[in-house]
């Protein structure tokens, strides 16, 4: 009998196109065989690929430069979300010149439009009623389905795991890999199960639950794991609530989060435009019912949480793990036993302008933001509106507080308007906007001013996330609405609204025109030679190392959002750690370590804190480090996407113990140079007294660095395996072909207008 498997194991194993084993790498030289290796990578098939305008331009440029095409346009869906304005869109005005004032934002959006035209890809543009945040529209349209692998150049792809999918974020180079091959080379993560049993108290929401979970396991607690959420509380959540939970798995440091599909999942998906129909629906549901962890399946880590222990909570600091009950107080950094955590808390409180012991409910806010891929769905808007309604018809937002609602998609905006929610918000003094990411990342001009404090339903409270110097408190939509009314952080239970989260059935309020361009279902497969690039070789590196002592250094910190608008990957050295190097108000230089000799010439960066490069998937973080001259990063652990992005850019991320990192940082303080030898997998300190430190790297990645292989070209050699997998896939899951309609039906049927 087969060994019991987790849900993650099942989906992973069912998607392996090719198993990399170390001995198969013919071009390895002998010494490599004798060196111990970490796990190898698997080439896995990608069923669904979502694209947005920020992370996709370099991928298309790469594709174009190599003369490659998109292998599966019928499994790809693009939209614009991060840069789009949330002010009125002029009733169908199509001209981006008129709609998007900022030239860089406009360039990203128009570049995506050009790319989808050139490569014939399905696209929901700014003027399409199905446009919205990529993680909102995927599920909404039925593009996201149980049992699939789903990727996007965006870290919150974990959202789609709510459907029992394996969904995770990737960097731009990996986006190019998927466009060209419909596959990805990945290392399998470990299994973690978080079981939430019993039930949630009255007025406690899924956002409180996921904040509570992150508070318990920490922002790096999920590093190296895929989390399966289970237990009676999770089973009782609506799909929208499950999406909020899975969405923030990335804030817990996990590769992905997932929930086994059930009748609630199937009811949500039924009749969605891109979900299987008719016979395919029946077959799909039969298969989907098998998607659950076997009873005896072994998880590497089990976490148990009692629903009753979860209360409405809010963040006080600049990491999503900085969570307290809304009825609590700002913690004293001295209460953290761990030194790194204590220092992080001190830094956070300074940034947030808070004093330990202050009651959370006494903290005044300047702004309230309701929206994002975590909480911009219809159920979230209903929950917030219910709080306002239950406060009474004449209640308005507290004087001087600027309050904004940004629906997660245009379809949600229309749904909310049909329910009259916009009137509830407007009457209370909220601004009612068009859909997009908006102030979650502040790329579109909607942003928090320096020093201002925002009650936000988003997922990241990182320094500068909503605007340089801006202060973010994460919370549920109900709490955000209650806070808007009182002007200070507020427990929503005092408004005793119905905050229960109910499943939302699909209501098709948007009929799409039936004009569809003729498109190829599948691009012809081209077998290519593995190319070697001398510029992409990493063997030995010697030089200065710069020490850093922060925990959870996020990629927003490494490169803030304003530099993500550049289409180019060069010239980003000045953007590196911009907000740590410059005062947010005056722009004055802050004497940051990388600006001081000898560290301004550093080629190594040593972080003593874990989870370096957590958060967003922006490959710009790796590009800016590389442009500065850093080629090797050493830390106790890395954010998964960031680590992969380093490898893709010929940079070496090395994981060592905290003690080893501290000892290397101490040497770096003395200006002692380091030398890394990748072939031997050792770090040598350029001083006679120290022994080399050994480390391990993924075998295949190491080979790519040593030999300068082009990973996409390597995968394209496996075209016969990919084609064979696709044939098997069509037999097993025919509904995944042709944009959810099977290959027998036109891949682009009436429902799927390409809105160019
Ligand atoms: C721009 C994109 C790459 C990024 C992400 O990966 O998460 C963004 O969505 C964010 O939330 O920071
Ligand atoms: S986290 Fe914010 S910026 Fe990122 S995809 Fe979600 S809404 Fe957009």
Automatic annotation (TrEMBL):
Taxonomic superkingdom: Eukaryota
Domain Aconitase/3-isopropylmalate dehydratase large subunit alpha/beta/alpha positions: 9-487
Residue ranges of domain Aconitase A/isopropylmalate dehydratase small subunit swivel in the record: 537-657
- A GO-annotated cellular component: 3-isopropylmalate dehydratase complex
Q: Which UniProt keywords apply?
A: 4Fe-4S, Amino-acid biosynthesis, Branched-chain amino acid biosynthesis, Iron, Iron-sulfur, Leucine biosynthesis, Lyase, Metal-binding
Which enzyme class? lyase
* Catalytic activity as recorded in UniProt: (2R,3S)-3-isopropylmalate = (2S)-2-isopropylmalate
Please provide, alphabetically and separated by semicolons, the GO molecular function terms listed in this UniProt record: 3-isopropylmalate dehydratase activity; 4 iron, 4 sulfur cluster binding; metal ion binding
InterPro entries under this entry?
A: 3-IsopropMal_deHydase_lsu, 3-IsopropMal_deHydase_ssu, Acnase/IPM_dHydase_lsu_aba_1/3, Acoase/IPM_deHydtase_lsu_aba, Aconitase/3IPM_dehydase_swvl, Aconitase_4Fe-4S_BS, Aconitase_4Fe-4S_dom, AconitaseA/IPMdHydase_ssu_swvl
Which Enzyme Commission number(s) are listed?
Answer: 4.2.1.33
User: Which cofactors, by name?
Assistant: [4Fe-4S] cluster
What pathway does this protein act in? Amino-acid biosynthesis; L-leucine biosynthesis; L-leucine from 3-methyl-2-oxobutanoate: step 2/4
One biological process term from GO is: L-leucine biosynthetic process
Where along the sequence do coiled-coil regions lie? Answer: none
User: What does the protein in this record do?
Assistant: Catalyzes the isomerization between 2-isopropylmalate and 3-isopropylmalate, via the formation of 2-isopropylmaleate.
Q: Which family does it belong to?
A: Belongs to the aconitase/IPM isomerase family.
Entry's NCBIfam families? leuC, leuD, PRK01641.1, PRK05478.1, PRK12466.1
From the Swiss-Prot or TrEMBL record, give the protein name. Answer: 3-isopropylmalate dehydratase
Tell me which species this is from.
Mycena indigotica
């Amino acid at each position: 009998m087969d060994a019991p498997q987790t849900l993650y194991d099942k989906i992973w194993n069912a998607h392996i196109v090719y198993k990399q084993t170390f001995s198969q790498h013919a071009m390895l030289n002998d010494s490599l065989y004798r060196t111990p290796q970490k796990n190898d990578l698997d080439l896995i098939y990608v069923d669904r690929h979502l694209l947005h305008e920020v992370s996709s331009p370099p991928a298309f440029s790469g594709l174009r430069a190599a003369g490659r095409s998109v292998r599966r346009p019928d499994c790809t869906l693009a939209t614009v979300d991060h840069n789009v304005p949330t002010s009125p869109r002029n009733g169908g005005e199509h001209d981006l010149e008129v709609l998007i004032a900022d030239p860089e934002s406009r360039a990203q959006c128009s570049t995506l439009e050009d790319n989808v035209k050139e490569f014939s890809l399905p696209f929901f543009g700014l003027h399409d009623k199905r446009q919205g945040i990529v993680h909102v529209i995927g599920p909404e349209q039925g593009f996201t389905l149980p049992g699939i692998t789903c990727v996007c150049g965006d870290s919150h792809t974990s959202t789609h795991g709510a459907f029992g999918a394996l969904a995770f974020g990737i960097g731009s180079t990996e986006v190019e890999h998927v466009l060209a091959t419909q596959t990805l080379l990945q290392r399998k993560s470990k299994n973690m199960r978080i079981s939430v049993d019993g039930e949630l108290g009255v007025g406690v929401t899924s956002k409180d639950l996921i904040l509570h979970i992150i508070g318990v396991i920490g922002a790096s607690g999920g590093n190296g794991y895929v989390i399966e959420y289970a237990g009676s509380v999770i089973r009782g959540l609506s799909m929208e609530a499950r999406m909020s939970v899975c969405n923030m798995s990335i804030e817990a440091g996990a590769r992905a989060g997932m929930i086994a599909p059930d009748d609630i999942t199937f009811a949500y998906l039924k009749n969605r435009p891109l979900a299987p129909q008719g016979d395919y629906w029946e077959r799909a549901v039969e298969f989907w019912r098998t998607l659950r962890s076997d009873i005896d399946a072994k998880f590497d880590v089990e976490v148990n949480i009692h629903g009753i222990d979860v209360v409405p909570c809010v963040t006080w600091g600049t990491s999503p793990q900085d969570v307290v009950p809304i009825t609590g107080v700002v913690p004293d950094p001295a209460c953290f036993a761990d030194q790194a955590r204590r220092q992080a808390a001190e830094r956070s409180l300074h940034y947030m302008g808070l004093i330990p012991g202050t009651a959370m409910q006494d903290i005044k806010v300047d702004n309230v933001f309701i929206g994002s891929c975590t909480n911009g769905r219809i159920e979230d808007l209903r929950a917030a509106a219910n709080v306002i309604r239950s406060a009474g018809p004449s209640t308005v937002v507290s004087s001087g507080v600027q309050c904004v609602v940004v629906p997660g998609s245009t379809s949600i905006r229309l749904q909310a308007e049909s329910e009259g929610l916009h009137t509830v918000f407007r009457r209370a003094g909220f601004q009612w906007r068009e859909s997009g990411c908006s102030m979650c990342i502040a790329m579109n001009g909607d942003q928090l001013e320096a020093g201002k404090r925002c009650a936000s339903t988003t997922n990241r409270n990182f320094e500068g996330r909503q605007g340089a110097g801006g202060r973010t408190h994460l919370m549920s939509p109900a709490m955000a609405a209650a806070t808007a009314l009182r002007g200070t952080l507020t427990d929503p239970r005092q408004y005793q609204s119905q905050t229960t989260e109910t499943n939302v059935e699909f209501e098709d309020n948007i009929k799409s025109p039936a004009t569809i361009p003729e498109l190829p279902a599948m691009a012809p497969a081209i077998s290519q030679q593995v190319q070697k690039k001398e510029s992409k070789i990493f063997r030995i590196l010697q030089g200065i190392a710069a020490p850093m002592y922060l925990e959870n250094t996020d990629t927003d910190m490494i490169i803030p959002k304003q530099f993500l608008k550049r289409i180019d990957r060069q010239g980003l050295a000045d953007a590196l750690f911009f907000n740590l190097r410059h005062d947010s108000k005056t722009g004055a230089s802050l004497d940051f370590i990388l600006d001081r000799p000898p560290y301004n010439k550093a080629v190594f960066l040593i972080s003593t804190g874990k989870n370096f490069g957590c958060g967003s998937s922006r490959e710009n973080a790796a590009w800016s480090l590389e442009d500065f001259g850093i080629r090797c990063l050493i830390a106790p652990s890395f954010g998964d996407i960031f680590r992969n992005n380093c490898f893709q850019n010929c940079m070496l991320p090395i994981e060592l113990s905290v003690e080893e990192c501290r000892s290397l940082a101490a040497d770096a303080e003395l200006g002692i140079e380091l030398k890394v030898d990748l072939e031997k997998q050792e770090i040598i300190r350029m001083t006679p007294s120290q022994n080399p430190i050994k480390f391990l790297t993924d075998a295949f990645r190491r080979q790519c660095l040593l030999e300068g292989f082009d990973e996409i070209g390597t995968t394209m050699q496996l075209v016969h395996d990919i084609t064979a997998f696709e044939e098997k896939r069509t037999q097993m899951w025919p509904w995944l072909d042709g944009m959810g309609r099977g290959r027998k039906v036109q891949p682009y049927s009436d429902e799927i207008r390409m809105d160019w």
